[in-house]
Design brief:
431 residues; pyruvate-formate lyase- activating enzyme; five-stranded mixed β-barrel; 12 helices; globular
């Protein structure tokens, strides 16, 4: 009888990618992967540690796994396991805690699951090579991810990730191209390049490479139809990369850029290495070269010491930018980071109110951006269905489109004429 195992995940796309890869390897090794709520013999919890709140969510997920499967053995991995294994190993049901570097050999480590809880976590700061878990299929049929990089060298004052993921390490370009080719051959119409800090791609390789060089090779040397880039730091978007995207029929005109604050004093406290003037020039340069590009910004609200004036500066700065959507993150203390002990922590009710105001601004910008495409015909990669006979999909510039269509369209690229903008997004009909 096969061992039944469930895998559950918190956190970023890198964690989600690695969980999917672990599931694939488990199936290949003869395990039966079951949903989290089903009875399982083994439960793998892939944790996140970006804030104290996600630490708590990770612990609660482990406790829930124990309640659902009292007889199961629980294996904990991910970023929280990497930075604080001692806080997890004694939770009821936990048999093994493994670090992020150990994910590559997790199948072998499962043989060590015993009655006595064990910790297998190495010093990830010593890791020098990117050794991703390879993945050949995804639960969604429309997009596939290639993890080209891991780790981060930035050490922003609010972030624990360099301690959880180690220094920046890049996948050799030939390996990245091989993965893209395999996934395109498997039928995926869109490939997404992901990692922790992809703008720093290739600096650690010998010979050195750059994200622009990798993207150009993928475009020129593989049959990929659509290529999308993950989040890129504002200081790592050279004009050469923007020009390549502007001239390409393959690379999606979509930027995801962490702004974090629109006030220079707050940026300094965050240990961000740019100011608002630099950021404005960079965003306006993208917009001038690619007027219809989607430009999404990350914003942290309520960073320690953020005054009403500093928040007003952020709101006014974002209003002035040609951004198309916002990802808003209320500040949450992460123990072990400088920001957690900074003076003048902003009260939670003020953070909540400010976050609502930034989200409202983001909705206004997204609405105005989407309206520009009414009456246009856009290429949409079909992601799934929302109700009987209604499909949804994603355009090259990151807009959700809803339209009538059959389930057979999922995973295909179709042309959709946009007819209106509804509360849920753009509506259209297949052209």
């Amino acid at each position: 009888m096969k061992t039944r195992v469930s895998v559950t995940t918190l956190g970023c796309k890198t964690n989600q990618y690695e969980s999917a890869a672990m599931e694939e390897r488990l199936v290949g090794a003869g395990y039966e992967v079951v949903p989290f709520d089903d009875a399982a013999d083994l439960v793998i919890v892939n944790t996140c540690t970006v804030t104290a709140a996600t630490d708590r969510q990770s612990r609660n997920l482990i406790r829930r796994a124990r309640r659902l499967n009292p007889g199961a053995r629980i294996v904990v991995t991910g970023c929280y396991a990497q930075v604080a294994p001692d806080k997890l190993v004694n939770l009821p049901g936990v048999a093994l805690v493994i670090g992020n570097a150990e994910k590559k050999e997790f199948l072998d480590l499962l043989h060590d699951v015993a009655d006595t809880p064990q910790i297998k976590v190495s010093d990830i700061g010593r890791a020098r090579e990117a050794v991703p878990l390879r993945l050949s299929r995804f639960s969604e049929r429309s997009r596939a991810f290639v993890q080209i990089q891991n780790g981060c060298d930035a050490y922003c004052s609010y972030c624990i990730i360099p301690h959880a993921r180690g220094r920046s390490r890049s996948l050799p370009p030939d390996e990245a191209l091989a993965q893209v080719r395999r996934l395109v051959e498997s039928g995926y119409p869109e490939i997404v390049l992901t990692g922790i800090h992809i703008g720093g791609y290739g600096a650690d390789l010998s010979p050195a490479c750059s994200l622009r060089e990798l993207v150009a090779r993928i475009q020129d040397e593989t049959p990929v139809r659509r290529l999308r880039l993950g989040s890129i730091e504002p200081t790592e978007i050279p004009a050469a990369l923007v020009n390549l995207m502007a001239e390409s029929a393959v690379i999606c005109p979509h930027f995801h850029i962490p702004l974090q604050s629109g006030d220079d004093q707050v940026l300094r406290r965050m240990n961000r290495i740019y100011d608002t003037e630099f950021f404005r020039r960079m965003i306006e340069g993208i917009h001038n070269r690619l007027p219809e590009a989607a430009i999404g910004l990350d914003v942290i609200v309520g960073f320690p010491g953020e005054t009403e004036q500093e928040f007003a500066n952020t709101l006014r700065f974002i209003e002035s930018l040609p951004a198309t959507h916002l990802h808003v993150f209320p500040f949450s203390k992460r123990p072990g980071t400088p920001a957690a002990t900074m003076p003048d922590q902003v009260p939670g009710e003020i953070i909540k109110e400010r976050s609502a105001r930034v989200r409202a601004l983001g909705e206004e910008k997204t609405h105005a951006y989407a309206q520009r495409f009414i009456g246009r015909e856009l290429e949409v990669v079909v992601e799934g269905g929302v109700s009987a006979g209604v499909r949804k999909g994603l355009t090259r510039n990151y807009l959700q489109v809803f339209f009538p269509g059959s389930a057979e369209l999922v995973g295909r690229a179709v042309r959709v004429r946009i007819t209106e903008l509804s509360p849920r997004g753009l509506e259209g009909k297949i052209g």
